[in-house]
Amino acid sequence: MNWQDVLTAMLPEHLLLVGMLLILGREIGTGRERGGFALAILAVAAAACTAAWLAASGYESAPFAGHYSVTPGSSLAKAVLLGSRCPCC
Predict the structure, then answer these.
(1) Dist CA 73 CA 56 (whole Å)
(2) Per-residue model confidence as pLDDT tens digits over 21-73
(3) How many domains does the chain contain in total?
(4) 75: domain range?
(5) Is residue 22 part of a domain?
(6) Within a 13 Å sphere around the CA of 31, how many CA atoms are in the beta-carbon half?
(7) Does 88 map to a domain?
(8) Backbone angles phi and psi of 64, in degrees to 5
(9) Would you list the DSSP string of 13-60?
(10) Residue 89 is assigned to a structural domain of this protein
């Protein structure tokens, strides 16, 4: 297993995770709720752009064979779903 393939294949998910951790840390640090809207939009946009980039570059990998694989089609589906997510809903 190549760690670079694992990190590249799961980059959109990792960006979403980092966004969630930043929002949680901000709420814990400031004591205010509902202050992380801009961070949430930034994290979702970054994940969507990364998924679109993986799809456009034709990246294909199976870092965990039989459990998790990435194809251009699956990356495109991620990009469309993340990009179509309405931030107001």
Answers:
(1) 10
(2) 998 898 888 877 776 788 888 999 999 999 999 999 999 888 887 788 888 99
(3) 1
(4) 3-83
(5) yes
(6) 0
(7) no
(8) -125, 85
(9) HHHHHHHHHHHHHHHHHH--SS--HHHHHHHHHHHHHHHHHHHHTT--
(10) no
pLDDT beyond 60 at 85: yes
39: in domain:
yes
The alpha carbon of 48 is separated from its chain's Cα centroid by a whole number of angstroms, namely: 7
Q: With contact defined as beta carbons under 8 Å apart, do 44 and 50 qualify?
A: no
Tokens of 42: 């930034």
Q: Which residues contact 55 (CB under 8 A, 6 or more apart)?
A: 72, 73, 75, 76, 79
Q: Tell me phi and psi for residue 71, to 5 degrees.
A: -125, 165
**89 compared with 31, residue with greater pLDDT:** 31
